[in-house]
């Protein structure tokens, strides 16, 4: 092969890289304009149902059948923190969707998840990019094409239905009933590695989650930290899905928020935000109010974090098995650092957000 | 095999148990590595094999065991043993705990089901001995290895072999899960209630195990067939000559088989009793060599009229290999006696089946004029296979010959069909030709 040939191949490759990168940006930023014009007239859950039907309308009959499943407990429990292997989740894989279908799906997700910076829809897309990054490094079951979207029950403004979207490091389960959002859990988020660069852009999708949890623990006094710490260690979140999924602990561990300083109490509340901001603004506001009301009876516990120092945020969540849990009457958030799977020399993050009263609501 | 006779109750409640459900534990995929606790149950002994992921063990022991796994067992063997023994208990009466001893400890590497990443494991073999008057059908397993410290750690408990129920499949089926009960943060002991079995079931289990062993033992089968290949022939001038007649053939076959049986029964008994600790690898090599020699014998008589001694001698070697399969059941003397008897009967029965199926073809072939070619061709093939096995068993690496054999073996009924087709064809060809006296000798 001649040098000229090599050069032209390199130029083409560079252009296609540029092009693909632009296309990705376009996906994230402008899809709402592209396919949602029909639904712009409505707001709230009406708009979500409109967008859901819009998406379903782009599907073939066979695809629709695969997409909409019965709303029952067995199906509702099909969320996972494992890479997709074909039977983990219900619905359609992104890789099985045409570009039009995928845009319609993403328009729906953007509306449900909202547009808070680095949270919601934006974090979801960053998470799928992180999986593409893993796929490039390790192949296997990783990659954005292995993320799955589906419905339990038929989307409507009057009935009860659930939107399930998930892949290796993301699981969102949002339940609607009679035009209201009635549950936004279980939810799972993770990222590996914690920082990655794709097409020249560096992403850190869970940096905020880590920061708020570290700020919270750092705001505790030495005594408060001692009261919050447990000797049990964790190698993963406790309430992960799967064959051994289990019940919420009856006894809450660690320190009760009402026993903390007012500064620390505010930090506990702030630590919940990145999980609640993964839903659109109005939904997030409702849940923030719900958990604020519960705040005094909420507990914080942590383990690992042997380097953790009161007053120093950066001393928390640095090593494998550094773990924190917020456990309230309703809220349950776990956040943990784990040894990487594809990059074993680096840590990666896992988190689970659940709700004592609203997981699989009514099922 | 369904496991519906098994009932497991937990001390209080809430430890997830699976009743009457057969789950092969290897099929699981979990986020953080789990412990596999595999039980081999015989009436007076419970053998427990633990596969402990090093990453989780490190967290539990508060030290990084993954740093230099190569030297782990040299530097920390005692510490690991003490740790394991502290967290594994069994009893019927909590005041009278069973004796627990470690019989082996080594490092293993498993692959994560999804990512394919290597998971380093500490593999620990334990033997738990019930008190006088107690047995292994009903006891409490008080176990909190790793999970006493690691809150999300899970141990899957399964039964691989259960002698008294004749369950000798070597496939683990899950019977329970031990983990921290998340509701109250306690680890409940697993109460194990197994339906009563008996010696008859154990014996019958061993008979079918023996049959299965021959059915799946490509090398043993091939050895027998190779030995029988020239058995119907007479020898003239140190060469195989014509067919010896039906009575001659059957007597010879019976003698060879009986001699082989006597040989392997003897070493099976000795080996199973553990009197001698034989090097498994070299036994396997010797078996392959025995096949090779028998194949040469099929071409040119090496030990004509001494077949009985040879069959006995090779029987001794094959019996040593059989004994290795019984040894890990950890049986007591009475059960061991029943097992050796049952296993042997199973082997015999299966061998007889093979002979009944194949010998008519050999007798047919022996009378044809082309048997010399067929026999030499088959013997050549067998030599290649035997050489493949010899190389594989010395190098501990599969080669293309052994891989091909493994590939073909499931279709061996077609080979049998082929043998009969060749026999019938040869017979037809022979009948159409004018037989000459010496044609059968090659």
TrEMBL record, chain A:
Q: Which domain of life is it from?
A: Bacteria
Q: Name one Pfam family in it.
A: DUF3500
> Which PROSITE patterns does its entry note?
PROKAR_LIPOPROTEIN
InterPro entries membership: DUF3500 (IPR021889)
Q: What name appears for this protein in its UniProt entry?
A: Uncharacterized protein DUF3500
Q: Which organism is it from?
A: Dyadobacter jejuensis
TrEMBL record, chain B:
Q: Is Membrane included in the keywords of this UniProt record?
A: yes
Give one Pfam hit by family name. HupE_UreJ_2
Which InterPro entries is this protein grouped with?
A: Put_HupE_UreJ
Provide the transmembrane region boundaries.
256-275, 281-299, 308-329, 349-366, 373-391, 411-431
The lineage's top-level taxon is Bacteria
State the UniProt keywords alphabetically: Membrane, Transmembrane, Transmembrane helix
Output this protein's name: HupE/UreJ protein
């Amino acid at each position: 092969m001649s040098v000229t040939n090599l050069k032209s191949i390199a130029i083409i490759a560079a252009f296609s890289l540029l092009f693909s990168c632009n296309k990705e940006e376009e996906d994230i930023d402008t899809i709402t304009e592209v396919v949602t014009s029909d639904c712009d007239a409505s707001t709230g859950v009406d708009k979500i149902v409109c967008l859901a039907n819009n998406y379903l309308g782009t599907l073939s009959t066979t695809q629709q059948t695969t997409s909409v499943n019965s709303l029952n407990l067995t199906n509702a429990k099909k969320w996972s923190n494992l890479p997709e292997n074909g039977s983990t989740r219900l619905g359609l894989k992104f890789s099985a969707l045409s570009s039009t279908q995928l845009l319609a799906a993403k328009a729906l997700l953007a509306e449900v998840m909202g547009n808070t910076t680095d949270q919601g829809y934006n974090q979801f897309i960053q998470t799928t990019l992180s999986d593409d990054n893993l796929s490039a490094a390790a192949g296997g079951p990783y990659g954005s094409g292995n993320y799955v979207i589906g419905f339990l029950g038929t989307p409507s403004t009057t009935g009860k239905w659930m939107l399930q979207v998930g892949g290796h490091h993301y699981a969102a389960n949002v339940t609607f009933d009679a035009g209201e959002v009635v549950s936004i859990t279980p939810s799972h988020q993770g990222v590996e590695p914690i920082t990655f660069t794709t097409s020249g852009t560096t992403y850190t999708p869970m940096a905020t989650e880590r920061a708020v949890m570290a700020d919270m623990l750092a705001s505790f006094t030495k005594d408060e930290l001692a009261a919050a710490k447990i000797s049990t260690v964790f190698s993963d979140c406790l309430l992960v899905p799967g064959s051994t999924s289990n019940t919420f602990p009856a006894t809450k561990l660690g320190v009760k928020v009402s026993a903390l300083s007012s500064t620390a109490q505010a930090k506990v509340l702030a630590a919940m935000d990145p999980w609640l901001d993964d839903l659109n603004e109005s939904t997030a506001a409702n849940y923030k109010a719900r958990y604020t009301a519960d705040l005094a009876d909420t507990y914080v516990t942590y383990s690992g974090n042997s380097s953790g120092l009161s007053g120093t945020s950066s001393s928390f969540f640095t090593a494998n098995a550094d773990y924190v849990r917020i456990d309230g009457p309703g809220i349950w958030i776990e956040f943990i650092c784990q040894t990487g799977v594809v990059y074993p020399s680096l840590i990666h993050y896992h988190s689970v957000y659940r709700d004592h009263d609203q997981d699989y609501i009514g099922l | 095999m369904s496991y519906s006779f098994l009932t497991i109750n937990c001390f209080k409640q809430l430890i997830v148990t699976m009743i009457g459900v057969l789950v092969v534990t290897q099929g699981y995929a979990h986020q953080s590595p789990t412990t596999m606790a595999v039980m081999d149950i015989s009436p007076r002994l419970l053998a427990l094999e633990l596969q402990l992921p090093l990453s989780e063990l490190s967290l539990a022991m508060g030290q990084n065991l993954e740093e230099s796994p190569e030297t782990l067992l040299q530097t920390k063997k005692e510490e690991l043993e003490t740790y394991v023994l502290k967290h594994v208990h069994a009893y019927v009466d909590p005041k009278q705990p069973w004796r627990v001893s470690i019989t082996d400890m080594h490092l293993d590497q498993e692959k994560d089901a999804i990512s394919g990443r290597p998971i380093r494991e500490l593999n620990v073999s334990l033997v738990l001995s019930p008190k006088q008057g107690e047995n292994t059908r009903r006891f409490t397993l008080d176990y909190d290895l790793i999970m006493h410290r690691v809150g999300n750690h899970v141990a899957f408990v399964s039964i691989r072999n259960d002698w008294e129920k004749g369950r000798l499949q070597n496939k683990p089926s899950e019977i329970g899960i031990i983990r921290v009960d998340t509701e109250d943060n306690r680890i409940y002991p697993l109460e194990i209630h197994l339906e009563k079995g008996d010696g008859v079931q154990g014996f019958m289990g061993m008979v079918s195990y023996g049959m299965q062993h021959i059915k799946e033992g490509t090398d043993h089968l091939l050895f027998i067939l190779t030995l029988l290949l020239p058995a119907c022939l007479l020898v003239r001038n140190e060469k195989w000559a014509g067919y010896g007649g039906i009575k001659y053939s059957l007597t010879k076959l019976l003698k060879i088989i009986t001699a082989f049986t006597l040989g392997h029964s003897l070493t099976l008994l000795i080996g199973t009793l553990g009197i001698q600790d034989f090097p498994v690898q070299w036994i396997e090599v010797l078996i392959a060599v025995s096949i090779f020699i028998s194949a040469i014998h099929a071409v040119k008589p090496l030990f004509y009229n001494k077949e009985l001694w040879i069959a006995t001698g090779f029987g001794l070697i094959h019996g040593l290999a059989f004994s290795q399969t019984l040894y890990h059941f950890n049986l007591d003397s009475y059960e061991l006696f029943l097992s050796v008897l049952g296993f042997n009967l199973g082997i015999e029965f299966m061998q007889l089946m093979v002979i009944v199926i194949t010998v008519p073809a050999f007798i047919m072939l022996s009378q044809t004029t082309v048997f010399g070619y067929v026999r030499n061709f088959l013997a050549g093939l067998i030599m290649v296979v035997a050489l493949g096995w010899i190389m594989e068993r010395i190098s501990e690496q599969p080669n293309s010959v052994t891989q091909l054999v493994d590939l073909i073996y499931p279709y061996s009924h077609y080979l049998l069909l082929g043998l009969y087709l060749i026999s019938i064809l040869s017979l037809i060809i022979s009948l159409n030709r004018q037989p000459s006296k010496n044609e059968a000798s090659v």
